Amino acid sequence: EIVLTQSPATLSLSPGERATLSCRASQSVSSYLAWYQQKPGQAPRLLIYDASNRATGIPARFSGSGSGTDFTLTISSLEPEDFAVYYCQQRSNWPPLMYTFGQGTKLEIK
Amino acid sequence: QVQLQESGPGLVKPSQTLSLTCTVSGGSISSGSYYWSWIRQPAGKGLEWIGRIYTSGSTNYNPSLKSRVTISVDTSKNQFSLKLSSVTAADTVVYYCGAYDSSGYYVDYWGQGTLVTVSS
After folding, report:
1. Closest Cα to residue A5, out of B107, B109, B46?
2. What chain B residue is nearest to A85 in terms of C-alpha separation?
3. Could you give the C-alpha distances from A80 to A44, A49, A84, in angstroms and in order?
4. What is the distance between the alpha carbons of residues A64 and A47, in angstroms, rounded to a whole number?
5. Chain B nearest C-alpha distance from A15 (Å)
6. A50: phi > 0 → left, psi -120 to 50 → alpha, else beta; which?
7. Does residue B89 sit at the A interface (CB-CB below 8 Å)?
8. Are B99 and B107 in contact (CB under 8 A)?
9. A5-15 b/e with 16+ CB inside 10 Å = b?
């Protein structure tokens, strides 16, 4: 099973600042990595797929990068609505097929 | 746009079987465009994939839950379902249904989630 480790667990920043979130895979996932945003009481929302492609309707301040085992989600200038929990997710095809999520990074207002 | 809605009992007794249904609207479950999936989340914790089903009926399950999980599809009702047997308090979590995109890698659409409590 591929394990995804996110860091930091909590990130305290102010609106307007730049946020950098990390996701590390225990083995290569190529570019098949997604990022989701989850706000309290809501379902997650797809932000980034294939490591660097923004999903439909996602603002340009969100960007993703990386391949292999190291990935980054960057929010260039934080808006008040960006404070939430962020998860990375991958799918491994080696039998058995399996999806795993990172444990999440909570982005909180400083 | 596809919309998903979970339904089912919010309270299940220990050792019994949890049954949830996800109703799909805004698209046909038979279209072949999505992999229909169940994902769960304990309160305040991370996400765990339970399993998925394709229109053909082909299924994949999380190995850690496989012995207790069955996912099925009812194309006539545009629904898919989850059954989880022998539940314990550890199965008290929010359950989401989701639609993985046609590549099967990413969840394009999510239901709102439903909390199931296991308690006598």
Report:
1. B46
2. B46
3. 17, 23, 10
4. 9
5. 24
6. left
7. no
8. yes
9. ebeeeebebee
pLDDT tens digits along B33-58: 899 999 999 999 999 999 999 988 99
- Minimum-distance CB partner of B106 among A42, A49, A97: A49
Gap from B104 CA to chain A (nearest CA, Å): 8
Residue A44 in tokens: 């997650």
B107–A46 CB contact, under 8 Å: yes
Task: Say if strands B114-118 and B11-12 run parallel, antiparallel, or are unpaired.
Answer: parallel
16-75 of A, contacting B, C-beta below 8 A: 32, 34, 36, 42-46, 49-50, 55
pLDDT in tens, A73-90: 999 999 999 999 999 999
Tell me the two tokens of residue B120: 């006598």
Q: Which two tokens stand for residue A65?
A: 């990068």
Please report, as a single letter, which amino acid is at residue A48: I
Asked if A34 and B105 come within 8 Å (Cβ–Cβ), the reply is: yes
CA atoms within 13 A on the CB side of B75: 10
